[in-house]
C-alpha cells in the first residue's frame, strides 16, 4: 500500500514523496487542512530532471512538530503561501530530447491507433494494466524479468543499444 503526498516550505518549493505500508493507511482526515509535518529519512531520487522521495522504513513522519522550522512554515502558509505558485521538484512524465513531456493516460485501443501514426516526436503514454501471464521460462530455462542492458548510443542513432550485457558488463555488439 502506498500514498503519495506533496510537501512545500517557505521557499515556495514542493516535493512529492511516497509513504509505504501502515503510514500510507492513515486516515485521509489526518492530511486534511494541509497540516505542517516534519519528515526524517526521506530517500530522494533524481531521474530525468525530476526528483521524488520515498520515506524509508526507519524514517519518521511527525504531524505538527514543535520545532522553529515548523512554525516558520506554518506562518508562511497562513500568510499567503497557500495561494503562492510553487516550484515543483517532482515531475510527472519523462524527459525526451532534452525537454520535459508529460505523459497522458489512454487505453490500449488508443495506443494502438497512435502507434500506427508516424510522429516526429515520440508519444509518451502511461498504461495501467493487469498482467494475466508473465513468462518466466523459455524452452525449459529460467528467464529473468529484467537484464542489464548496454547503454551505449550508437553512431547515427539517438537511442541506446539495449542489448543484453554478459556477466562482466560486456556488450558483444558494441565492444
Low-confidence stretches: 93-101
Gross CATH architecture of the largest domain: Beta Barrel
Nearest-integer average pLDDT:
81
Number of beta strands: 11
- Can you tell me the CATH superfamily of the largest domain? Nucleic acid-binding proteins
Q: Cα distance, first to last residue?
A: 43 Å
- Strand percent estimate: 25-35%
The SS-based structural class is: mainly beta
- By CATH reckoning, the class of the largest domain would read Mainly Beta
Pfam family, one: REPA_OB_2
Organism: Alexandrium catenella (Red tide dinoflagellate)
Protein name: Replication protein A OB domain-containing protein
Domain Replication protein A OB: 2-61
Protein model, in words:
By secondary structure, the chain is mainly β. It folds into three domains: 2-88, Nucleic acid-binding proteins (OB fold (Dihydrolipoamide Acetyltransferase, E2P)), CATH 2.40.50; 92-127, no CATH class; 130-175, no CATH class. The chain has two helices and eleven strands. It has helices at 68-78, 108-116, and strands at residues 2-8, 13-20, 37-47, 50-63, 87-88, 94-96, 99-101, 104-105, 125-126, 137-138, 141-142. Strand 3 and strand 4 (50-63) form a beta hairpin. The two termini are 43 Å apart.
Structure in a nutshell:
The protein folds into three domains: 2-88, OB fold (Dihydrolipoamide Acetyltransferase, E2P), CATH 2.40.50; 92-127, no CATH class; 130-175, no CATH class. Helices cover 11% and strands 32% of the residues.
Amino acid at each position: 500500500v502506498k500514498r503519495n503526498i506533496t510537501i512545500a516550505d517557505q521557499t515556495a518549493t514542493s516535493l512529492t514523496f511516497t509513504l509505504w505500508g501502515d503510514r500510507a493507511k492513515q486516515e485521509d482526515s489526518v492530511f486534511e487542512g494541509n497540516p505542517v509535518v516534519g519528515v526524517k529519512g526521506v530517500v530522494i531520487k533524481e531521474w530525468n530532471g525530476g526528483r521524488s522521495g520515498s520515506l524509508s522504513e526507519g524514517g519518521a513522519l511527525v504531524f505538527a512538530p514543535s520545532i522553529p522550522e515548523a512554525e516558520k512554515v506554518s506562518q508562511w502558509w497562513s500568510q499567503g503561501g497557500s495561494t503562492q505558485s510553487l516550484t515543483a521538484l517532482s515531475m510527472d512524465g519523462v524527459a525526451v530530447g532534452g525537454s520535459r513531456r508529460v505523459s497522458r493516460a489512454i487505453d490500449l485501443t488508443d495506443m494502438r491507433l497512435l502507434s500506427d501514426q508516424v510522429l516526429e516526436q515520440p508519444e509518451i503514454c502511461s498504461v495501467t494494466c493487469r498482467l494475466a501471464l508473465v513468462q518466466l521460462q523459455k524452452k525449459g530455462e529460467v528467464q529473468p524479468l529484467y537484464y542489464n542492458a548496454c547503454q551505449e548510443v550508437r553512431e547515427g542513432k539517438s537511442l541506446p543499444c539495449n542489448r543484453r550485457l554478459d556477466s562482466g558488463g560486456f556488450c558483444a555488439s558494441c565492444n
